Amino acid sequence: MAHRFGIIGGGWYGCHIATSLRSLGFDVRVFDGASRLLDSASGNNQFRLHLGFHYARHYGTRMQSRDGFSRFVERYPGLSRAVEDNIYAVSRGDSLIDFLTYKLIMTSSGIEFSEMAAPPPELVNVEGCLRTPERVLLLAKARSYFRERLDGVLELGHTVGRIEPRGEQVYVDGSSFDFVIDATWGHLTRPPIDLFYEPTLLLYYEANGPFPAVTLVDGPLCSVYPTEDPSLYTLSSVTHTPLGRYATSTEARAALAAVTPELVAEKVARMEAEILRYVPTFRDVFRFLGPQLAIKTKPIGSFDDRSCHVFRDGRIFSVMSGKIDTVFFAVERILTMLEAMPDSDQHQDGGQLKAEVAAAFPRPGGGLAA
Ligand SMILES: Cc1cc2nc3c(=O)[nH]c(=O)nc-3n(C[C@H](O)[C@H](O)[C@H](O)COP(=O)(O)OP(=O)(O)OC[C@H]3O[C@@H](n4cnc5c(N)ncnc54)[C@H](O)[C@@H]3O)c2cc1C
């Protein structure tokens, strides 16, 4: 009989894991406290389909993104689009590494780009620029894609309060499953690593014409990136987007709920001042529309690890998300861990081999030689 999985969280990770397991013949049920899919971080981010250019200081994240990017485009061909003019610019003076080092890291990582002979006219104070084929995620299409594929197995509006292992089963608010996957990005159970919760604030802007996607690297810098609507952009800042560091999800949610119009106005002023240093025409091109609020769950560490990790405690898996294009890694880890579990076929074969060896070489006292 196919295993039954209870999946908690209907973000990119929960949706991808659920559709992948379903296509392998497993039974799934997906719970989310929100009334629609991709409602939390998955629906409130910069919507960048990463290739790895953000992660000059973390090899594992770069590799997961580079490989995940092609797999994502293949698996979800309708859920992202090309960004016409997509530029990574190394800041002159404020970057943690120089342009040549940045370029060498990306070249040695096998990430596709072309070097620009000179910065575009929109940009100043940069040492060098790369043009990349990174893409943007299409949120509305992703929501309806997963809604359709998970029809009949979704429990939206159900905030899970309790996961309880009992014998060979795990209970989710009283319903029993063979396995449970916590894909809440650490909001229900906490992955067993040192982490913190970071409420975030991005800013939405409307552009009065085409404008390149511009990401300043490397370090505490800013970026302006289009959304699924080509006239709508997000402005993000490594320095000003975070609204604090919290030990628990509850505290982070409280901080997000306490955001005031005054705080938003202050962030607008600070983030615009930052981007104006590189894009002097920013205020002529862009008009502020409103804030976007979310929570990032981050591992503690200063080298920008945004790779995906999966942990298992008995029959409960918990997923520490990486970027959106690293969803594939989560499913692979879950399947590998499942295969390695004591009651899997693989282990039963191993048990049989052990019995055969014991039968062929019986020891006087019984059992196998150490
Ligand atoms: C500001 C910002 C910018 C980012 N930019 C990018 C980017 O450009 N590109 C990129 O690839 N990644 C980006 N990310 C990261 C990306 O958003 C996350 O990696 C991804 O969305 C995580 O997906 P998830 O499914 O694990 O979590 P989430 O999308 O947070 O989904 C978790 C789900 O669990 C549900 N849930 C929580 N608790 C319960 C409960 N008790 N019961 C039931 N349901 C529950 C929530 O409602 C939610 O829907 C960004 C993140 C932020 C915050």
What does this molecule look like?
- The protein has 370 residues and is of the alpha+beta class.
- Helices cover 29% and strands 28% of the residues.
- It is built from 9 helices and 20 strands.
- The chain has helices at 12-23, 59-75, 99-108, 139-149, 249-257, 261-276, 282-285, 327-339, 345-360; strands at residues 4-8, 27-32, 48-49, 80-82, 86-91, 114-115, 126-131, 135-137, 154-156, 163-166, 169-172, 175-177, 179-182, 195-207, 213-217, 222-226, 232-237, 286-299, 309-313, 316-320.
- It has an 8-stranded mixed β-sheet with strand order 6-7-5-15-16-17-14-18, with helices on both faces.
- Strand 11 (169-172) and strand 12 form a beta hairpin.
- The radius of gyration is 23 Å and the shape is globular.
- The protein starts with a strand and ends in a 10-residue tail after the last helix.
- Residues 344-350 and 366-370 have low confidence and may be disordered.
- Residues 8-14, 31-34, 39-42, 45-48, 50, 159-160, 183-185, 187-188, 200, 202, 294, 296, 321, 323-325 line the site of flavin-adenine dinucleotide.
Summary keywords:
single chain; 370 residues; alpha+beta; FAD/NAD(P)-binding domain; D-Amino Acid Oxidase, Chain A, domain 2; 2 domains; eight-stranded mixed beta sheet; 9 helices; 29% helix; 28% strand; disordered C terminus; binds flavin-adenine dinucleotide
